[in-house]
Design goal:
NAD(P)-bd_dom_sf (chains A, B, C, D), seven-stranded parallel β-sheet, SDR_fam (chains A, B, C, D), homotetramer, Rossmann fold, about 240 residues, 7 helices, about 45% helix, alpha/beta
């Protein structure tokens, strides 16, 4: 299977997903936009098309392996085997975050399905053609919570730690085969109407620009294979860390 | 609910579980032995009783919240609310470990249930009485794979990373309430008939003594609250790391 | 050279040094007490002797290799080759800590000599007899600042990061030869008249007991070689981290 | 003092320094080339000038604060206050690397002066004008040895750990003032005649391209302040890690 100039972005919604899709479209990539909610996809697809790009809306439930496999087949049929996979879907966040005693085990378990098993299945779909081609890029969106388990943050931290492990495992198995695998730790709040509402008193200059994040994803994809990044952080200049 | 001199050890089988149970029994603790397989429990319970200790075999499926809750009620009814919880159950390991493309998503998903969600549910059962008493100890058995995602180790690494996150989240929420939470990174192969068979050519002196591991668990429980360990590693002297 | 039941504790003053020395003396070890200031040593030596122990005061400047070598010869001559070396000397702390622009390069450079090169030279003295014996223990006192470089903490963080690197390098070279090397991260303020004065408003229950710290050092020394700890943290239960 | 479009690259020799200098010159930056050995500087300066760029050779001993201060004054006088500082000087490496017992304390101590104190002094020179301008970039070249202290690697690991601490301390103090501070972990061998000779049997495709490294330094400098990287790794695709 020949790789096409196609990028799959899983997780379009508040956050950096749509900016990442636009950034790759701007470079001539056909982009597949994946989200559980179709209503998140249409405006992004329209915007990309209005800029002269090619976008495909693919509603899929990342927590369900069959749904992922079907979505991938659709993508391959319409846009070809992707050269780039961006896994930007989260495990699902609750606000305010629940403490340990208020955490529903079923919700916790599902967070692994959506946040980690989904990432595995997407990678399993994309990897064979990448291995055959000896190239390709897989980028995982991580979070501060993937580095540090804070109080009341188990629901986010546990899947994000696991996603980081998955990223390392895939990198160590497939980088020698020419496939670049990176984990980007987003340490800050991405600018979006929803996030601004969550922390209304926050200094507006402290939000992260989704376009700035997207620029780094693009640069990671462009890195020469003699000097690949496996992990990096991104945070606004004012952020304490 | 008044805490009793009771220790629950989840995960009795090859590994350090039975040694940990014996160590606490030796100090006068009533011990609840938990495993999915009842046949793993009986010999350990008998040995503890033959040494004058009190042991309760509690078969339970740690990957099933209802089973965990029922097991905990049995423990409380027979041995009282535990002062100590040791989560020593693994996510289930396959040998040889599968590469990313051979990893069944259902198996992967279940590894989170058994290796992480189970730990959450056990902690949720044990914590309320500990919080009420303002003391208690929860010890999680981690692994090298919880620190580093190796090639072909995603099935172990992802849940173990997540378990580490859970341990940190519980520690940060409950240590200020007097409950000691620690994560012990086992970086080596524990001596047991099964593990010796897995790596037959390995120098026999390089296996970890389960009793030596158990000693460290006991010392962690005894630490003064002014100087608690949240994380430590354990490895045989010959181990490369 | 035959190892004696001798422990060298470098860094006696405010902090855990004197408690560590007492703990080993209590177990029958002859203890060499090392500090730049002789007046820090006498009260500790007297106390140990009054409890029936044997203590040797050895004033030495840990930042000066010749002084360390001479001190070590004195120790060997009077107490024999030590089985245990505890490097508990700090790089020298200023309060309040200077920002980057106020940090005198000569002070910074000297902090490496006292905090890291001194540790190397002490280890170089103690290791040959340990290697010959195939056993021995070297314990390094680390700090939170050895894991994270905070604003205005470069003077402490840089040497403490380097000390951690030294501990790992020595462990990886000498553990296979039977010598246990551990790094203990002290994440909190140790109870002492001086430290209480530095943070007068702090909740008094949040200080770390030096005796509790010493107990962990002793337990590390006693660990079975099949299950050695290379790194662990210690912090008071109320500490945020 | 007004910042000029000037970049200072400390550490020109085998490695990525000259490529980094060329990359910034290519973007119109005046570049100051700093090395202890003047003979390393001339060919790089000539090449940059032949491509239409402006380069200044500044011989200086980074392990000597007075030499650094004088070099900085020369740079400011001739090229203006720099907007970019790249600290690419190493602590000095010996090959083969000495074990702990063969490590000369004076050499070890000097490695901190050249590898860390020098970095502090360079940052102290560059920061005031950056603070005044509310912008600027400081990039530190780190190494795998800055993350992990290997056997026989103490001479490299200890200063590199400390440099990482310095990078974090400066970032946490100055990023809120608009100055971007990043630490790049080079995990591999950079292509150069000298390094190829050190490991003659190594697969030639496994060397890192210095130009590829330089590209990432440039992209770091260009990052939007709402999404800055503090730390990232770079390694060749074939590298085990």
């Amino acid at each position: 299977m020949v790789l096409q100039k196609t990028a799959v972005v899983v997780g379009i919604g508040p956050g950096a997903g749509s900016s990442i899709a636009r950034r790759f479209a701007h470079e001539g990539y056909k982009v597949a936009l994946v989200s559980r909610r179709e209503e998140s996809l249409q405006p992004v697809a329209k915007e990309i098309e209005s800029l002269g790009g090619q976008a495909l809306s693919v509603p899929a439930d990342t927590g369900d392996a069959a749904s992922v496999r079907q979505a991938f087949q659709t993508i391959v049929a319409k846009l070809g085997a992707p050269e780039v996979l961006v896994y930007n879907a989260g495990p699902g966040m609750k606000w305010p975050p629940p403490g340990i005693l208020d955490l529903d085990p079923a919700v916790f378990s599902h967070a692994f399905d959506a946040g980690v098993t989904g990432a595995l299945v997407w990678a399993q779909q994309a990897l064979p053609a990448m291995v055959e081609a000896g190239r390709g890029t897989i980028l995982f969106t991580g979070a501060t919570a993937g580095m540090r388990g804070g109080p009341k943050f188990a629901l986010l931290a546990c899947p994000k730690f696991a996603l980081r492990a998955l990223s390392q495992s895939i990198a160590r198995e497939f980088q020698p085969q020419g496939i670049h695998v990176a984990h980007i730790i987003i340490d800050g709040i991405i600018e979006a109407p929803r996030t601004k509402g969550m922390v209304p008193d926050r200094d507006q200059s402290s939000f992260m620009s989704p376009d700035a994040i997207a620029e780094t994803y693009w640069q990671l994809h462009k890195q020469d294979k003699s000097a690949w990044t496996q992990e990096m952080d991104l945070r606004p200049f004012v952020e304490k860390f």
